Amino acid sequence: MKKHNFYAGPSILSDYTIRNTVAAVANFADTGLSIMEVSHRSKEFLAVSSEARELVKELLNVPDGYEVIFLGGGASLQFCMVPFNLLNKKAAYLDSGTWAANAIKEAKFFGEVDIVASSKEANYTYIPKNYTVTDDVDYFHFTSNNTIFGTQLRQDPDVKARLASDMSSDIFSRPLDVSKYDVIYAGAQKNLGPSGVALIIVRKDALGHVDRPIPTMLDYNTHIRKESMFNTPPVLPVFAALQTLKWYKKEGGVAKIAKRNEEKATLLYDEIDRNKLFRGTAIPEDRSLMNVCFVMTDEYKDLEEDFNKFASAAGMVGIKGHRSVGGFRASIYNAMPKSSVEALVEVMKEFEKQH
Ligand SMILES: *Cc1c(COP(=O)(O)O)cnc(C)c1O
């Protein structure tokens, strides 16, 4: 039976990504060797790495003055690398979810952290608004899409400070004005590739303003100078990420993908709002187009486990909500076809008919 993959991460990848990666595991670029057994300094892999960085620039219209880096350590290492490289005295952070809170915890090792607003008291069901970022901060950090709670900030915040953003779960899901940002980072395993690599886009002149020494591996400039080849990069994940980037381009680019994402999310939210068994957990204006979180309405609470089984039997995988929210979460990342969202909507309708 066809599986509909709603996992939050690692998560669905395009068939194109899977097919080309499978082929390269057997025979990479006609080398007669697997992608897993070639030197990262071979000319074939150097071409992969540089094409991937170029495609990131092309797809997101990255202006001059920025560098693209691929690094191991996931998004979580960036929680520490961002302040290591940019926080001299004080930074401002928006506390909009678990990942934001984790980033705040790391930043505190490096200086003063001004938490400008938090929605923690409401279990992060909304994005805090009407906060002030003072002019004396080194940067303002926010999470663009809160993967666990299903909220998303789709406009670039209007602040004067340098901007740093964790875009792990919505990068490439919509066009972006990169020129407003100083650092953008994303773990690959939601919208780019398998786990094991993170993408970082950094404005070069944002670096070099901190007084502390930075260990070599944690210094963005190390990786910029060595073109993401300071040490052995995650070769296979970078290869797979390149396939996804090529697929984005083939599909017509980020604007096209954004349109499809809107359609998919609308389908699902409309059904959640219509169906008497379900209700969304995030406030409507902040709903994420990537992670759709919902629970059974109070009257039908006892049916949660039954719906889980019913959906699994219909081929739905990974819709169980994060333990801190409960209920359900359907992650409908870029690679998720509309047909899978339609299949989930059908399952929800069918289940409602039976109750
Ligand atoms: C998944 C996720 C992370 C954690 O990523 P790792 O690569 O596991 O460190 C951080 N931030 C957001 C928004 C995420 O969705």
Could you walk me through the main structural features you see in this protein, from its secondary elements to its overall organization?
This protein is an alpha/beta fold and 355 residues long. The protein folds into 2 domains: 236 residues, Aspartate Aminotransferase, domain 2 (3-Layer(aba) Sandwich), CATH 3.40.640; 102 residues, Aspartate Aminotransferase, domain 1 (Alpha-Beta Complex), CATH 3.90.1150.10. 34% of the residues lie in helices and 17% in strands. The chain is built from 9 helices and 14 strands. The strands form 4 sheets. The protein has a 7-stranded mixed β-sheet with strand order 2-10-9-8-5-3-4, sandwiched between helices. Strands 11-12-14 form a 3-stranded antiparallel β-sheet, covered by helices on one side. The chain has a two-stranded parallel ribbon with strand order 1-13. Strand 3, helix 4 and strand 4 form a beta-alpha-beta unit. The two termini are 25 Å apart. The mean pLDDT is 97. Pyridoxal-5'-phosphate (PLP) binds next to helix 3.
What is the helix content? Answer: 25-40%
Rounded mean pLDDT is 97
Rg over CA atoms: 21 Å
Could you name the CATH class of the largest domain? Alpha Beta
Total strands: 14
Q: How would you characterize the largest beta sheet?
A: 7 strands, mixed
CATH fold node name of the largest domain:
Aspartate Aminotransferase, domain 2
**What's the number of helices?**
9
Given the helix and strand composition, which structural class is it? alpha/beta
CATH homologous superfamily caption of the largest domain: Type I PLP-dependent aspartate aminotransferase-like (Major domain)
Shape: globular
Sequence of secondary-structure elements: EHHEHEHEEEEEEEHHHEEHEEH
What's the number of structural domains? 2
